[in-house]
Amino acid sequence: MILTILAIAGIATVLVAKLWKYILAFLNGPVRDLLERIFGAERCGWYVKFLQWADRQATAVNRFIKMYWRKFRDTILKVQSKYVKNEDGTYTKRTESLVREKSEAKTCRRVVTEETVGWEYLPDEVRAEMMRQRTNEAVLDDREVAAEKIRQRAEEEGISLSA
Questions:
Q1: How far is CA 69 from each of CA 79, 85, 86, rounded to the nearest angstrom?
Q2: Residue 114: which residues within 8 A CB-CB, separation 6 or more?
Q3: DSSP characters for the chain?
Q4: CA R_g for the chain
Q5: CA dist list (Å): 29 to 19, 22, 57
Q6: Rounded to whole angstroms, how far apart are CA atoms 114 and 21?
Q7: What is the rounded CA–CA span in Å between residue 21 and residue 8?
Q8: Could you give phi then psi for residue 90, rounded to 5 degrees?
Q9: Measured between alpha carbons, how far is 76 from 80 in angstroms, rounded to an integer?
Q10: pLDDT tens digits for 67-105?
């Protein structure tokens, strides 16, 4: 659940950061031209300073995204959820995570959580796999799902997450 929220927040931030260059082009192009025609170029210095400030903020967000992508990739080693059907028709979601203690450390911490969820709260991939296999349990690699969504959105928006 937390990884899903982080993935959605990450994707939204990547989207805003990527769209910034188009927003900036619009604000520094047609909008600036309009303001300069109305007020004169000498009276629009405040607007240029505002755009410069906003650009620094958006660029910092883009760098932040890349830095935390690397941190996520190097720190979260495994997040895997196993779903098993209970007698009462609900499902037990058992999530196992392996988290590196420190970025340079060779040790990691294992965290296991369990919760009970209904069929409608199972991820689409899990429900589909259970139906396909005609089984009452399935395993989902949450880390890879989150990482793939982040990579796809970044690729769509032209942001390289490598390096």
A1: 16, 34, 36
A2: 92, 93, 94, 95
A3: -HHHHHHHHHHHHHHHHHHHHHHHHHIIIIIHHHHHHHH-GGG-HHHHHHHHHHHHHHHHHHHHHHHHHHHHHHHEEEEEEEEEE-TTS-EEEEEEEEEESSTT-S-EEEEEEEEEE-GGGS-HHHHHHHHHHT-SEEEEEHHHHHHHHHHHHHHHTT-----
A4: 23
A5: 15, 10, 19
A6: 43
A7: 21
A8: -85, 175
A9: 11
A10: 777 777 777 777 788 889 999 989 998 988 777 777 666
Sheet holding 91-100, edge to edge: 108-117, 91-100, 76-85, 137-141
pLDDT in tens, 114-135: 999 888 888 888 888 888 888 8
Is the dihedral angle over the CA atoms 138, 142, 147, 149 positive or is it negative?
Answer: positive
Cβ partners under 8 Å of residue 106, min gap 6: none
